[in-house]
Amino acid sequence: MKTMTKTSSLWINTGFRIAAIVLALAFTSIVLLLSNARPFEAFANIINGSIGSSKGIANTLVAWVPLLLVTSGLLMTYATGMWNIGIEGQITLGAIFTTLALRLMQGTSVPPTLAIILSILAGILGGALWAGIVALLKIYGGVNEIFGGLGMNFVSTALTIWLIFGPWKRPGTGSMSGTEPFDTSLWLPQLEGLRISLWSVGIGIVGLLVVYFILQGTYFGLKLKAVGKNGRAAFLLGVPTTRYIMAAFLICGAFAGIAGAIQVTGVYHRLIPSISSGYGYLGMMVAMLVNFQALWAGVVALFFAALNIGSIQLPIVMKIDSTLSGVLQGALVLFFLLMEGARRTFLSKKRGK
Amino acid sequence: MFSKRTWTLVSLLLIVVLALSACAKPTAAPTAAPATEAPVVVTTEAPKEITFGLLLVGPYNDHGWSEAHFNAGLYVEEKLPGTKMIYLDKVNPADRPGTTPAQLADELVGQGATVILFNSDDMKDSATEFAAANPTINVIMASGDQQWAEGKDFKNLPNMVNVMGEMEYGKMMAGCAAALTTKTGQIGYLGPLINDETRRLVSSAYLGAKYCWTTYLGKPAEELKFKVTWIGFWFNIPGFTSDPTQVADDFFNSNYDVVISGIDTTEAIVQANKMKLAGKEVWAIPYDYEGACDEAPDICLGVPYFNWGPSYLGYVTAAMNGEYKPLFEWVGPDWTNINNPDTSMIGFKEGDALSAEAKANVDKFIAELAGGLQLFAGPMNLQDGTVYLKDGEKATDLQIWYLPQLLEGMEGKSLP
């Protein structure tokens, strides 16, 4: 009898999720039709552009890795009930610290491999530092982490621009294209003819596994979730709430820092003005979409990355704007949340009967 | 609550969508056939066809730099049968986060392009990287210097052409028109970011202004104020750059009655027009794109513009015939007729707001330039007072291209 109910509620859950996806696709289709484009052709182009060629797959993975790392980090802060919207700034600071480390080591006797490793560690430090400030503001300053995070994002942007047009400018010129590119010896080794580095893919996957393990298999993870579910109760039961919130922020910042480090060492090979590439905000959407479950983060992040890369085809082939991928991503999250609410209402009604 | 009615609504929505998409389907595929066919030539060879791809830093219809390149692409399509243009615009880190121009060039190659144009100095690293990684693709890099053997950044790539127009002349004409028109003796220059190119262009505008101010109006050079304000990029990126609308307004509100635009978009003439409608006597000079004055002809003194078409036609033709060669070209106006669309890289289209008297002098100035007048001539000092050119010395191409500072007498930042 009990298993019967479990299966039926699984079906109901799945049904609502599929409905969310269908609604999001339908909504995007309407947007497409309104702009005189044919939805099926657009979706086919997105798929073809993202997974239709080895270069497409490689580029999708290039976007996947930082997105995955950021999402993984966010799962930690979400577990404690915190909205770490400052994640963009944390990626940026990771990138800045990585660039700083590489600048210091470029042209010295430090072996390139060691330089890359140290620069990624520097990135971790940068991201964690920036997240730590948000956490401190929250815990000791009573500043809501959303506002603190937003503020720190602005500061990080200003800092990047200042560095690129100031102390780190190219000889004689400042350029939106960023700082002088690093020597190829300081790049994460890429696959022949492709933009992706297997090292960064490895780091991304390990990152997700670590977070999954922490949240599902450790006492520490359990306490984090306890803080998120009911901070006061957790505190009364002996969990040092503030310390756990701080820990979650530091870990999340560290993950964002790695993402920033990979943007520098593996993708742009220099610091550019928008080095975070919006992966922080996108990661928040992924985390919401997977309902904060680590298990699905990898798949959904891959899907979002594929949308970003595949949609580049739209302006080339169909002369429609590639921001359509953003419309689809946003619609997915909205309809998912909507359906989640609908599901709860449905289930409680059913139980009420 | 969440019952029949909701489901009905959802189902209806779906049906509408599916029906609409089904309706839309039978229309002809837009990308199927090339627009132009090669002429039927009785030879054993198949008609030649080539796809070229443009990467544009701004929107293709920006009425500025990017549109000038886009129109050049259309010109090639029109003049050379068998060519097809594909393009991607807004290629910059703010509009396309997470991508690099080299990666986007790959996307164009994936759609069949064998000639790729990078149209911005900001894509320089990517263009170099892409050209090196794709030796079979012919690369055009507008405004770069990687192929200039004497230049500071020579990369010697066998598959790349660098091309730039000698806009210095266009800017001199713009400066001249501004100086002949200003009533307050104050000219503002809406600058993009600071680099070699923008330094030499704003300085050219100043030289043109000073020459016409002193020579034709007979006024002392000290009475001419010339100030540049840099916004930080080629066009407005909220949060990244200063707002060009604000900068233009500031000029007009502080007694600068002519603003010359050095950026890729139209804020200068748009704001000048608003000021004019509000009763202020002001003028503006846009940039890049031949039709730029059309937006506000009443206050437009003229526009120095690029005409990339003839050059691109040459490169695409060479690529088609397998004769593509590495090259650095800095192309000047066709002095017999600077506005000839088939021959002149640099043009100056005089605007409606230019008075008859001023027009006559601008024409005279253009004739003098055509006759060999060289304004980058000594004695000339840099902004900090150090000697740039000695008395009687004329600047070399290298000295002009890599102008290290603004010139003495100009107001504004020389270095970022």
Structure description:
- The complex is a heterodimer of chains A (353) and B (416).
- Chain A has 2 domains: 1-37 and 323-353; 58-319, ABC transporter involved in vitamin B12 uptake, BtuC (Orthogonal Bundle), CATH 1.10.3470.
- Chain A is 76% helix and 0% strand.
- In chain A, α11 runs parallel beside α14 (324-352).
- With 353 residues, chain A is an all-alpha fold.
- Chain B is of the alpha/beta class and 416 residues long.
- Chain B has 2 domains: 50-165 and 310-319, 3-Layer(aba) Sandwich (Rossmann fold); 167-305 and 349-401, Rossmann fold (3-Layer(aba) Sandwich), CATH 3.40.50.
- Chain B has 11 helices and 14 strands.
- In chain B, α2 (65-79) links the parallel β1 (50-55) and β2 (83-88).
- In chain B, α2 crosses α9 and α5 (167-181) runs antiparallel to α10.
- Classes of the chains: A mainly alpha (353), B alpha/beta (416).
- At the A-B interface, α1, α2, α3, α6 and α13 of A face α1, β2, α3 and α4 of B.
Write the layout of secondary structure elements.
The complex is a heterodimer of chains A (353) and B (416).
Chain A: H1 2-34, H2 39-51, H3 54-79, H4 87-105, H5 112-141, H6 145-165, H7 198-217, H8 219-229, H9 231-236, H10 241-268, H11 279-289, H12 294-310, H13 313-318, H14 324-352
Helix pairs in contact in A: 1-14, 2-3, 2-12, 3-7, 3-10, 3-11, 3-12, 4-5, 4-6, 4-10, 5-6, 5-10, 7-8, 7-12, 11-12, 11-14
Chain B: H1 4-24, E1 50-55, H2 65-79, E2 83-88, H3 101-110, E3 115-118, H4 124-133, E4 138-142, E5 160-165, H5 167-181, E6 186-191, H6 196-215, E7 225-230, H7 244-253, E8 258-261, H8 267-277, E9 283-285, E10 302-306, H9 309-320, E11 327-331, E12 346-350, H10 356-370, E13 380-381, E14 387-389, H11 397-401
